[in-house]
């Protein structure tokens, strides 16, 4: 890959207008990667309870599928921490991104060939898990590198980037499940190959993502290159432009870092270790009890490692990291509720929703479950970003802590609306898809108050040498959220039984969503109450 550095970081960050031009290349690369990821994510639970052939025979139960969904997604996001660590220390963000995308393509190819046997399914998923870990945190970090410290346009940039994520999620989330269920392109996809095509499509668009990055990376200048410079084999100190505001005020924009030369064998060791881990990851993903051991271990170890890193920084920088940890803890709670979308809400959509929107449009309810949130994000993410900019100019923009708290309040409103679907039955046990869509509309504003702002705040609060690690920790928090989401979803399923009537299932699931609404509201109020303390820890960071 090209390593053109004619464009300096200062040139990139001194852009005019609302968005840097380099953002668009990253936007489209991420968009197609998210098509791949959300396409496969959206089919997991449904596929496991209807088509996956277990070694013991039959398909998964609903509660087991929820646990399996949570375990699989937990590993996906947990590996973003590992991917961020390798990117920071060895590969650089660009090579990490490319390697991750390549692994995701292999995983999709395995699933496209024959996804039905349990062994094939989890082998393909394992490649995707590790690939996402290398891809996801690093492209987000490169977006942060496009902005100078204190640039008020950063949140708007991340909001636009987040809309790109959701364009991919919309297209992949609806297309893959609809193709797999035989409800899209039925005129030329043979019935026996619908799932093969669904998984193959994910791999095809991942290839488009990598090609897009290859042809646009030359505009990134020094952003994302490996920390190992192959020049004269010596260790040396160099001046680099700092883009995240972690250096002392008397030296704004410059930081001295030490780089090592001629360490390319480290890079090859990472690739070899990755491939060697595939069988291990496959075993751990396939058995949810292994996920328990992993999650009980990785979190404490990560905190120990962060504590060690904090000893190398000033107390002022450490306070910012403590603030980042508070955001991370609350994000775990948020994602535990939000990610019911891929678990319990997927089953709820398949069994308890009609297929008519606005009284006229026929849509697959699982496709709507996968895509409704993305539609609203695409529409409103740029608008919300511009609103933050307008409020900042008038000095009335709420701080990041308040935005997080508002995110939980919207989340509570959305889950309360999921609960109210029980009052809008169109048949016995079959609820209105319209009300379900309204719930996602409300939840979307909660997501827009938290997720793109969360990506941005991790880059603002992190020292430059910990950028990838802290972005990885942000996604590791998502891993714990996914893990808890699976447990919550399994609990909703086991509150009833597999043989319950549709009416009883409707009551069981909506009762659970009512409880989640209450807990989300409590979390939002707590966060707003403690906002002054968190603001002090953040210091000058807004």
UniProtKB/TrEMBL annotation:
Membrane topology of the entry: Multi-pass membrane protein
GO BP, sorted A to Z: peptide transport
GO molecular function term, any single one: peptide transmembrane transporter activity
Family matches, as Pfam families: PTR2 (PF00854)
Subcellular location: Cell membrane
Assigned keywords, A-Z: Cell membrane, Membrane, Peptide transport, Protein transport, Transmembrane, Transmembrane helix, Transport
Keyword Iron included in the entry's annotation: no
TM segment ranges: 35-54, 66-87, 96-113, 119-139, 160-181, 193-215, 268-287, 293-309, 321-338, 371-389, 401-419, 439-459, 471-492, 512-534
GO cellular component terms, A-Z: plasma membrane
Keyword ATP-binding: no
PANTHER family, per database record: PROTON-DEPENDENT OLIGOPEPTIDE FAMILY TRANSPORT PROTEIN, RESISTANCE PROTEIN MDTM, PUTATIVE-RELATED-RELATED
Protein name in UniProt: Amino acid transporter
